[in-house]
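Recap slide: NADH-quinone oxidoreductase subunit J, sequence and predicted structure.
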Amino acid sequence: MITLIVFYFFIGVIALSSLALFFTKNVIHNAAYLLFSLLSVAGLFVLSGADFLAITQVMVYIGGVLVLLLFGVMYTKNSIDHEMDSGSKRTFIGFLFGAVLFGILAFGILEEDLDRDYTVNNEGITSNLGISFMTDQIFAFELTAILLLVVLIGAVFVAGKADKTIDNQ
């Protein structure tokens, strides 16, 4: 029973923050609503026993994408004070797209056999994945680490070059 209450809580937070995200014009407020929505999705992953997906959700989307969005907004100084322009044509297209997506999802849910047992045995999934990364997939894991290091060094180099250009003007 408590699982069902927590599930509906996360679904409610996702629905409300997504609606607020859609109707709010301030970019910083949009980032906050996106944070609530992404955290709730991570909570749903934890609730369903997908610990690795929950951690990935927090690290990649909240730790990466959301922080990158906020840095982008802060880096372009004047965009914080301005509100986004959302024309009526874009709003209509958004509602139309949302209605079509809702119809497709509703059709898929209604056609699904809900009487089937959906329990998943997830003992040791995360630990087995970690062992696989460090044994079978070590080359790809290390190559990804080197690639991320090169990207980080490149970003620092580009940011330093941009600061020198601004100082010279």
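The chain has two domains: 1-81, 125-169.
The chain has a mean pLDDT of 82.
(End of recap.)
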